[in-house]
TrEMBL record:
<dbReference type="InterPro" id="IPR036249">
    <property type="entry name" value="Thioredoxin-like_sf"/>
</dbReference>
<dbReference type="Pfam" id="PF03960">
    <property type="entry name" value="ArsC"/>
</dbReference>
<protein>
    <submittedName>
        <fullName>ArsC/Spx/MgsR family protein</fullName>
    </submittedName>
</protein>
<dbReference type="InterPro" id="IPR006660">
    <property type="entry name" value="Arsenate_reductase-like"/>
</dbReference>
<comment type="similarity">
    <text>Belongs to the ArsC family.</text>
</comment>
Length: 118
């Protein structure tokens, strides 16, 4: 299991506590220090069944600077969004947990985190 975290995020710390409490074996990826590539983001989006604009944190200052709210959200624009998420990882919703079986969730609630436990 792998979890993408920002240590300053309370939702990430809560997810880690749930995983620890369940005795889960996992690897932590501090995705702000080790940003995912565009290909990794594409793979996560596929597993999540989400579009890149659905994974973007629109309240981040960089989102406002880039004007993300006004960007088109069409299949033709996916690559631009994915590249932007890779270049500005702070825009990525967190924590993202990928279970050993490939199941992937944005673990913002305890229930969602528990859903990927064996």
């Amino acid at each position: 299991m792998e979890i993408w975290v920002n240590p300053a995020c309370s939702k990430c710390r809560s997810a880690l506590s749930v995983l620890d409490g369940a005795g889960a074996d996992y690897t932590v990826r501090r995705y702000l220090e080790d940003p995912p590539s565009a290909a990794e983001i594409e793979a996560v989006l596929e597993r999540l069944g989400m579009e890149p604009w659905d994974l973007a944190r629109m309240t981040e200052p960089v989102a406002k600077e880039l004007g993300l709210r006004s960007w088109p959200r069409t299949p033709a624009d996916r690559a631009r969004w994915i590249t932007t998420l890779s270049e500005h990882p702070k825009l990525i919703q967190r924590p993202i947990i990928t279970a050993d079986d490939g199941t992937t969730v944005v673990g913002r609630t305890e229930e969602t985190v528990r859903s990927v436990l064996p």
